[in-house]
Design brief:
604 residues; alpha+beta; 8-stranded mixed sheet; 19 helices; 21 strands; 22% strand; binds aspartic acid
Length: 604
C-alpha cells in the first residue's frame, strides 16, 4: 500500500501498485510519486538499471503501474516531514505499466480546484483526490458506526421498497411508469414512513435503515433529489427513549470521526425556541434574545411608536466593535420585516434619547463594550393581539416579530463572523457541536394560500393526549386560521446541531379513529383518505402497538464531520442544482419504442 511504507520497512522488499501522482526526471534518477487509496510513496528509478529506467521515462501522470523494489531510508536532507512515508523511498527493481492514461482534464494532485462542473463530469478523476477519498472514507466509517451501534441495541436493518405509492412528506414524487399496467405509476419513496410503521404492526419492534429517499423539490444549495436518511422506528417508546437511541448513535458516529460529544442533549419547547431565538432550529453558540420590553417606560414605547403588547427583543452579537456610519447603515437591508416588525440598529441613538432604557437594556443583555445591540419590536400600527383559544405561549403576531428578529440575528452573526469568532472550531467537541432537541411542535400549520391547515410534520404524528379536545373542536372550523387546531401540539421533535436541523421524528398515531380525525382536520373526506391511505388505515385496525421514531440526514451529518462546504462533497455521485448527473448525463429523453411500451406520449 502506497501510504504504508515506514522507516521500519527499510531493507525489506515491497510491491506497490497505484497511479502516478507526479514524476520528476533528474537525468540519472527518476522520481515517481505513486498514489493509491492509502497515500503516496516515492519510487526511485536509477539509470543504472537501464531497462526499467527507459520504461520509466515513458510514464505520465495517472498511468497505473506496479513496482517491485527495496525500501530504503532517504538521505537526511531529502526526508519529507509532510509525508507519512517521507522517511523512505522504494528503489525500483522491476516495473510494469498496467495501464496508460489520457491527459486528464485536471489532476488529482492539483492544489487549485477546477470548476465544479468539470469535477462532476469527470467525477472518477475528482474522487481520486485525497480530500474526496477522505470524505468517502469518513462516510463509510460514520455509517458503519451507526449500523454497529443500532445493531448492538437490538435494531434490525430491514429494507423497504423503492417502487411504491406516494407517501406525503410534503414534496413532489418521482414517478416510475408501469409497463405491465399502462397508465399507472409507482412513486419513489419520499421516506419509508408508512413501511416502517407497518413493520411495527408486523412485530419487528426495532427497525432501522440507512436508506435512500427521493423528493422532487426545487433544489437549494444544500438539497439533493436523492439523499440518505438514517431512518428508525420502535414500538412502545416514550419520546425520551427515541432521543436516547439517537444520542447513542450520534455519539458513536462523532467518535468515529474523532470527536467526543457528550449526551444527553439539552431540550427546548418549540415555543421557547421561538421566544428566545425566533427560529425552530436555534444555534446555541450565539446569545439568545433578551426580552427588553420592560426596560422601556410606557411613554418611551409610545415615543418610539411601538406596540406595548408585542415583544421587544434585543439581539446581541458579541465583539463586533465600533461600527462606522456606513457599517451601521448596512444592517437595515439585512432585516426582513414580518407582521409590522421594526428594527432599531443604531443603539447609540437609543442611548442618547432614552439613556435610562439603554442602560437597563445593556445590563439585562449582559452586553460587554464592543458588543452589537440591535432592537426588534412590533410597530404601534400593528393591530391588536388576537386572543387565541389556546394555551400556546406564542401568538401569530408575536411569532412574526420573533421570526423577523431571528433571521436578523443569524444574518448579523454571519456578517460579523470574523469579529466574534464564535463559528471557529476550538477543538473542544462539546463547544464546537451544540446539539439540541426541539420538542412539542404545533401539529398544524396554517396555509394562507390554500386557506387550510397542513400537517406541520406529517399526518401520522400523534397529537398531545391533552390536546385531543381541541382537535375534536377544531374539525368544525377547518378554514379558520384561529381554529382550535392552531393550539394542538404534536408529540414531534427535531434534533438540531449548530442551527441546522439534522432530523425530525415523532410518536405516531396508533389508533385508527385518531388517524381518521387527523385526515379530516387536513381537509380530506373519508373517501379521499380511504383512496390514499386505505391500506394503512386498515392495517391500524389489526392490533397496532404504540410506536415512534425519527429520521436523520446522513449526508448532512457526514458533511459536518468532514468539515465540507456542500453535500456534493460527501456524496460520491451527486446531482447539480438542476438535478442533473453530469457524469452519466441524466436525465435524458428515451426512445419512441420505450415510451410506446409504457403507454406514454411526451408533449413537445
Ligand atoms: N419520515 C419522516 C421524514 O422523513 C421522519 C419520521 O417521522 O420518522 O421526515
Amino acid at each position: 500500500m502506497c501510504g504504508a511504507l515506514r522507516a521500519s520497512d527499510a531493507g525489506k522488499k515491497a510491491v506497490l501498485m497505484g497511479w502516478i501522482n507526479r514524476r520528476r526526471d533528474h537525468g540519472n534518477l527518476l522520481f515517481v510519486d505513486l498514489r493509491d487509496r492509502t497515500g503516496v510513496s516515492q519510487v526511485v528509478v536509477n539509470a543504472e538499471r537501464a531497462a526499467i529506467h527507459e520504461k520509466a521515462s515513458a510514464l505520465r501522470n495517472e498511468y497505473v503501474i506496479a513496482v517491485i523494489g527495496t525500501v530504503k531510508l532517504r538521505d537526511a536532507n531529502t526526508v519529507n516531514k509532510n509525508m507519512a512515508t517521507g522517511e523512505v523511498e522504494l528503489v525500483a527493481e522491476e516495473l510494469r505499466i498496467l495501464n496508460e492514461s489520457k491527459l486528464p482534464p485536471f489532476l488529482p494532485s492539483d492544489t487549485a480546484l477546477t470548476n465544479e462542473e468539470t469535477r462532476l463530469k469527470y467525477r472518477y478523476i475528482d474522487l481520486r483526490r485525497d480530500v474526496m477519498q477522505f470524505n468517502i472514507e469518513m462516510r463509510h466509517k460514520v455509517a458503519k458506526a451507526i449500523r454497529d451501534y443500532l445493531s448492538g441495541q437490538g435494531f434490525f436493518e430491514i429494507e423497504t421498497p423503492f417502487m411504491t405509492r406516494s407517501t406525503p412528506e410534503g414534496a413532489r414524487d418521482y414517478l416510475v411508469p408501469s409497463r405491465v399496467q399502462p397508465g399507472t405509476f409507482y412513486a419513489l419513496p419520499q421516506s419509508p414512513q408508512l413501511f416502517k410503521q407497518i413493520l411495527m404492526i408486523s412485530g419487528f419492534d426495532r427497525y432501522f435503515q440507512i436508506v435512500r429517499c427521493f423528493r422532487d423539490e426545487d433544489l437549494r444549495a444544500d438539497r439533493q433529489p436523492e439523499f440518505t436518511q438514517i431512518d428508525l422506528e420502535m414500538s412502545y417508546p416514550q419520546a425520551e427513549r427515541v432521543w436516547e437511541v439517537v444520542e447513542g448513535f450520534l455519539t458513536a458516529a462523532f467518535a468515529a470521526a474523532g470527536f467526543a460529544i457528550k449526551p444527553p442533549f439539552p431540550r427546548m419547547d418549540y415555543d421557547e425556541a421561538i421566544r428566545l431565538y425566533g427560529i425552530d432550529k436555534p444555534d446555541l453558540r450565539l446569545p439568545a434574545f433578551t426580552d427588553v420590553r420592560d426596560c422601556f417606560s410606557p411613554e418611551n414605547l409610545q415615543q418610539l411608536a411601538l406596540n406595548a403588547n408585542l415583544p421587544v427583543v434585543a439581539i446581541r452579537i458579541p465583539k463586533v466593535g465600533e461600527l462606522s456610519r456606513a457599517e451601521r447603515d448596512s444592517i437595515k437591508p439585512l432585516f426582513t420585516s414580518k407582521g409590522g416588525a421594526k428594527v432599531f440598529e443604531d443603539f447609540k441613538r437609543i442611548e442618547k434619547n432614552f439613556p435610562e432604557a439603554a442602560a437597563k437594556i445593556s445590563a439585562k443583555a449582559a452586553a460587554e463594550p464592543g458588543d452589537l445591540i440591535v432592537i426588534v419590536a412590533g410597530s404601534a400600527q400593528t393591530g391588536e393581539q388576537t386572543a387565541l383559544p389556546t394555551h400556546r405561549k406564542v401568538t401569530p403576531q408575536e411569532l412574526a416579530i420573533y421570526a423577523s428578529a431571528g433571521l436578523l440575528r443569524l444574518a448579523l452573526a454571519q456578517k460579523y463572523a470574523d469579529r466574534h469568532g464564535i463559528f471557529k472550531k476550538t477543538g473542544d467537541a462539546a463547544k464546537d457541536y451544540r446539539f439540541l432537541w426541539v420538542t412539542n411542535f404545533p401539529m398544524f400549520e396554517w396555509d394562507e394560500s390554500e386557506k387550510s391547515w397542513m400537517a406541520a410534520h406529517h399526518p401520522f404524528t400523534s397529537p398531545h393526549e391533552e390536546d385531543m379536545p381541541k382537535l375534536e373542536a377544531g374539525v368544525e372550523s377547518l378554514h379558520d386560521p384561529l381554529s382550535p387546531l392552531s393550539a394542538v401540539r404534536a408529540l414531534a421533535y427535531d434534533v438540531v446541531l449548530n442551527g441546522t436541523e439534522l432530523g425530525s421524528g415523532s410518536i405516531r398515531i396508533h389508533r385508527q379513529d385518531v388517524q381518521s380525525r387527523i385526515f379530516r382536520a387536513l381537509g380530506m373526506t373519508e373517501e379521499e383518505a380511504k383512496a390514499r391511505f386505505g391500506f394503512f388505515l386498515e392495517a391500524l385496525e389489526y392490533g397496532t402497538p404504540p410506536h415512534g421514531g425519527i429520521a436523520l440526514g446522513l449526508d448532512r451529518i457526514v458533511m459536518i464531520l468532514a468539515g465540507a462546504e456542500s453535500l456534493r462533497e460527501v456524496i460520491p455521485f451527486p446531482k447539480t442544482a438542476r438535478a442533473v448527473d453530469l457524469m452519466v448525463d441524466a436525465p435524458t429523453p428515451v426512445g419512441e419504442k420505450q415510451l410506446r411500451e409504457l403507454g406514454i406520449q411526451v408533449k413537445k
